[in-house]
Structures
1.
Amino acid sequence: MGADILLLDLQGLTLITDYFVIATAETERQLNAMTEEIALEVQKEMDRAPLHIEGTAQGGWVLMDYGSVIVHLFLEKQRTYYDLESLWNKARTVVRIA
């Protein structure tokens, strides 16, 4: 399981998606496992595959595009560097699991 999981509601702020899910992994191995598990569970529960997956665990950031939901999985260093929470500070926080 990831750490500091955040669901942001972007509706009305952008046309690219409705929600961002942002989470942090402690290691590259955990980041890979999170990516695989999300893809498997979403496929199983909702019969949906990601439209696109971008990035790698080695790069510290994986983006999973499900259309209305985009999942951002980071290593801590990359999450701090890209700081999506500040870039999208007008988005409503739906839930945060710290």
2.
Amino acid sequence: MSHTFLRREVREMQAMGLDIELYGIRPDASDTLTPQERSLVDRTIYLYPLKIKELIGAKLFFMFRYPSLYLRTLLRALTNEERHPLHYLKMVYHFGIATYLARHMLRQNIQHIHAHFMNVSATQAMYCAGLLDVPFSITNHTGSIKSVKGMIGLREKIRRAQWIGTISDHSRKHLETIYPCREKCHVVRCGLDLTAYAFSPDHHELKTPGLVRLLGIGRMIEVKGFRYLIQSMALLKKNQIPAKLTLIGDGPLREDLKTLAKTEEVSQDVDFVGYRSQEDVVRAFQ
């Protein structure tokens, strides 16, 4: 539910005339998806839960129909660069289950595979591309080199990708330290269609005299830094500046953040409203 940017990209590329098929690792089990989001889930082919009979059938299909592609990709998996036993086995395992998605991609005549994130999605894209003999690419959304380096098979994915999109020059420089990729690594910054977030000066909740209204939106995890926003609310209160903060989103730290708001004595000024649709987000911005 937090990948709003990804859904936005899919819609924009479809509007440009690209024929896009959707594949995923696991379906979103959330019961708060909007009809538009649900429609994307319904048309997506997911790897999990594994369908064993179809997986075995797909594996036999590639072994006997495209033996050279199968053996070449298998060899890449068996000679992957991971030296940690568990990481090595994970790469081999991911090849073993990639045939399921690859068979579906073959039926849909996929000519290029793109993976968002450099984790399992990119691993599946790499192995499916090998089985189908088509190019693949990756978008890297991670700004932290610490978390990027924790992803297995990273050097090989960077090396084999036709091109890589990343969110910043900072991120591109870090990827370059893992494997030389400057020539095929392109900075594509995150952005918004500002016409969809037009300022509404007549909004009935726009202004209360003397009150600062703040809005925070995102997944409630450590890297989003919501704890600092709540601590800032305490500083405003200490300096006698009245403020109200609305937090849209959910995540594993939600209860911790609520506890922090109580500890900082600003819980009455911080409203946790949970996950909201993009329509609700627009209204909140206005």
3.
Amino acid sequence: MQFTERDSIIAGMIQRRLLPILTERLSEAPAVALLGPRQVGKTTLAFELAGARNALYLDLESQEDQAKLAEPELYLSRHEGRLVILDEIHRAPGLLPVLRGIIDRARREGHRDGLFLLLGSASLDLLHQSGETLAGRISFLELAPFNVMETGGDPDATDRLWLRGGFPDSYLAATEPASLRWRQDFIRTYLERDIPQFGPRIAAEALRRFWIMLAHNQGGLLNVAHLARNLGIDAKTAGSYIDLLADLLLVRRLPAWCANAGKRLVRSPKVYVRDSGVVHALLSIRDHDALVSHPVVGGSWEGFVIEQLLTVAPERTQAAFYRTSSGAEVDLVLTLPGGVQWAVEVKRSLSPRPEKGFHIACDDLAAERRFVVYPGAETYAITPTTQAVPLPHMMRLLAGEAV
């Protein structure tokens, strides 16, 4: 498949922060798997990378490209020395042993990196298959939707990103109605076409209702039995729905902090629909006025901020929330590489004042740094130990870029 002028234009609209990381990984490993939900921009990012590498791109959903791989080892051996990009790799798991043989042969001949870029809508099956078949030969990266640092970080762009979410076609749509239609079509396509590829057949309407229930409960504790009861299914089935949406990077289960044995802690995870625009589409929230007057506004902002921060957090950062039975709570506890702990509270007020329970929880955790992320423009001290920080500044700080 050829790269088009339109692909180049789209790729250049917003520079993805993952591009230099992906380039580095390809210089270190023979294969890199770039995972993420559909329409998040994996192929566009691959096109941007491919332009400088004379790469070979194969779409495994294309019958033409599938035919080329009828004898995969023979075909791929003709293109040795080029980066081969295999899109929708989950559709051809039988290719993985072939890739392993090609990689091992190339290693013996002194070619050790940058042979294959695998793109896939993330699933545990793909992770397990490639992890076992290509063990020691593959590196994994996740491409998330656009984030605040990629879209500019000014208040208007941040509000637009919060409302529309970060899927490129939604964020870049010409109008709010066009953006909402794209997200509604995205949800419908996932339910009717994409999700059935990854597991047993699930009734689209039942899963839609389940997804909507999660959106209404954005940022709430996960109560599988309650969700199952409301949907009229058993708890095991409801749990499998959560597992599937989480495997596809559409839902996040934020675990509860559980290391402090001296306190009575909440143990259930919190659950978030990961893209704020998808939350709003599921709830038929059409514009910013409808959003700020909707009961989900607080949970939506909290989930948006948490996703933004985790997108730029250093590798191997552990994320959790902290809540005791007596009410001490922190929205996000980040354990950075090296064991340093940051406590982050999320507030939508322009004059944020964390509650007493936040300070108690920070003391319980012995958090080295304490932040309240809010939608204002200035960084200032709330207390001698706690700072109010705008979201873009907090992201730069977490990414190691803040001055």
